[in-house]
Write a structure and sequence with these properties.
It is a single chain. The chain is mostly helical. 68% of the residues lie in helices and 0% in strands.
């Protein structure tokens, strides 16, 4: 019975954030995602490379909307994506013919390695999964996927987040680098 009682929850929902905080989160994400998308369209598409993938949007939520979260810090942002992209590419190469095995190995191994390296970043799970299910263009990139989009898009978001989140006194990013 205790097992099912735990499922009731019991914690409090997070407090509302101020309108100012909402607007700053919105503007930061607008700029960060705008830069990544603009570079993707202007530069990367001409080389059959990709810079913009879904997990970048999830990372923007953390680095602009939850800047104090341990999961949003630079080590987690960069390390989580790079580790997960690497694991996803390897899982795709080893188990590519079996999407069930490749996907489950990629995500679960990414989580374990992010825990081991103190780089847990939830969008990393999606980064590893995209290496498996992202289509022929993504799979054809092989290990280049670790650099473009995983590494560079994360680095761009980090730079924008550091510059933008410190403009006003009420925001400070990052809490720690390593």
């Amino acid at each position: 019975m205790k097992y099912f009682q735990k499922m009731r929850g019991g914690g409090q929902s997070p407090p509302r954030v101020s309108l100012s905080e909402i607007l700053w989160s919105w503007l930061g994400a607008l700029i960060g995602i705008g830069i990544v998308t603009g570079l993707d369209a202007a530069v990367f598409q001409g080389y059959e490379l990709v810079l913009l993938i879904g997990p970048v949007g999830a990372s923007a939520v953390l680095v602009f909307g939850a800047i104090r979260s341990p999961l949003a810090q630079p080590r987690n942002l960069i390390g989580g994506h790079i580790i997960s992209a690497t694991v996803g590419v390897i899982a795709g190469k080893l188990f590519g013919d079996n999407i069930v095995v490749a996907s489950s190995v990629a995500v679960s191994t990414s989580i374990a390695l992010m825990h081991l390296t103190k780089t847990l970043h939830p969008p990393g799970g999606a980064t590893s999964l995209i290496a498996i299910i992202g289509g022929e263009k993504i799979r054809a990139m092989g290990f280049l996927y670790v650099i473009f989009p995983a590494g560079l898009s994360s680095l761009i978001l980090l730079i924008v987040a550091v510059l933008f989140n410190n403009i006003i006194e009420s925001r400070k990013y990052p809490d720690h680098w390593i």
